[in-house]
Amino acid sequence: VGRWAGGQGSRWAGEQGSGTETRNPKPETRNPLFIIHYSLFIVVLVATIIPIPGQWSVSAAKEAWRQTTAYMTTHVNPADAVFIHPEWIRFPYQYYAAQMNTPGQTYAAFFAVDENTDLDAWLNGVVEAGHPVVWLIESHLEMPDPERRVENWFASRYPLVTELYPPGVTLKAYAPGYQLKALPPEATPTDATFTSGLKLVGAEILDTRLTPAESLFHPPSNWIHVILYWSKVSADAQDTFPYVHLIDESGQVWGASLERGSDALHFYPPSRWEAGQVIRQDVDVNLNPLAQPGVYRLIVGIAGETIELSAVELASD
After folding, report:
1. Count of structural domains, the chain
2. Which of 92, 154, 173, 227 could hold 65 in an S-S bridge, CB 3.0 to 4.6 Å?
3. Which domain holds residue 237?
4. Distance of alpha carbon 100 from alpha carbon 71, whole angstroms
5. 12 CB-near residues (< 8 Å, 6+ apart)
6. pTM (predicted TM-score)
7. pLDDT for 153
8. What is the pLDDT of residue 258?
9. Could you tell me if residue 2 is inside a domain?
10. Which residues contact 48 (CB under 8 A, 6 or more apart)?
């Protein structure tokens, strides 16, 4: 049964940047299965809040809700959506989001989905609210959505922004707002034209100081998230695919963008772009975990042509 939260007929939704609120003041009758799941997650939440002394480690972690919410607090924009699936896993996220003042409009909709669930009726409402990015948090899908129907709904329609796999949780982000009419104000303007017919008009570097190794979200390497904004300068622009590298003073590569067939330029190739469009492309640069502390350069290139984007400091801790 699906219940959409956050729009017309909503039952539950989060205020932007301030945890969650219940919008239906009348109590609902819950079936026994829901009560069991509710009780289970209260137990899980308590277990994550009060770890056994000396027993916690990344490898032993069951569900990294606190760390996942902390990541989202620094990477989610206020205009973004956070969609929690299934709805009853919202309790641990709600707890930490309220503490950390995590931004974004939060939705929780489906108790379970199957071939008879009208996903369009619910999920189109989230997209039509105008969120540039939808962050999809999923956990315990074995029974409520074993075929990952909600995830596939987003993946078949919008390019992937990023994906993380902390213990017990899956976090993926999709960009319904990847086709723009102008460069957004938060981007740094650039002016670099490549012979393929593409022009880099702006960029955002979300992480400019970090450690090269990472043990929770995608071990063993840390990632630098980069947002590139492209337009085309000729009607016959080629379907080329840029790369982003992290290099040292000698030009040696210590980080390279992950090749994803689901990013914006694969999802919507340049040959299909309209004149005047600005296309958002999200890239994760995978770092060599053995890179030494120091200042490196982040560059973007197409077929050997490169420009420098930013300096990045790799730290030891």
Report:
1. 2
2. 92
3. 179-314
4. 10
5. 5, 6, 20, 21, 22, 23, 24, 87, 90, 108
6. 0.84
7. 98
8. 97
9. no
10. 62, 63, 65, 66, 92
DSSP state of 32: H
Q: Is the Cβ–Cβ distance between 77 and 133 less than 8 Å?
A: yes
Extended beta strands in the chain, E state:
12-14, 21-22, 81-85, 105-108, 134-138, 160-164, 170-174, 179-180, 188-193, 198-205, 209-210, 223-232, 243-247, 253-257, 278-287, 294-302, 305-314
Question: Quick check: is 273 in a domain?
Answer: yes
- Are 192 and 117 in the same domain? no
Angle CA 203–219–240, to nearest 5: 35
Helix (H/G/I), strand (E/B), else coil: 160 = strand
Average pLDDT (10-29) is: 37
> Are residues 118 and 30 part of one domain?
yes
Contact 168, 109 (CB under 8 A): no
Give domain status of residue 68, yes or no.
yes
Cα 98 from Cα 173, distance rounded (Å): 21
- Interacting residues of 59 by C-beta distance below 8 A, sequence separation 6+: none
Distance CA 117, CA 176 (A): 22
- Given a contact cutoff of 8 angstroms between Cβ atoms, the answer to whether 89 and 140 are in contact is yes
What number of CA atoms fall less than 13 Å from residue 303's CA on the CB side?
Answer: 10
Rounded Cα distance between 62 and 92, Å, is 13
Question: Do 235 and 164 share a structural domain?
Answer: no
Residue 83 clears pLDDT 60, i.e. is over it: yes
Strands, E assignment, 39-108: 81-85, 105-108
Query: What average pLDDT does the segment 114-128 reach?
Result: 95
Structural domain contains residue 5: no
Q: Looking at the structure, tell me whether residues 288 and 273 fall in a common domain.
A: yes
Q: How many CB atoms lie within 10 A of CB 129?
A: 15
Listed residue (200, 240, 210, 207) closest to 226, CA to CA: 207
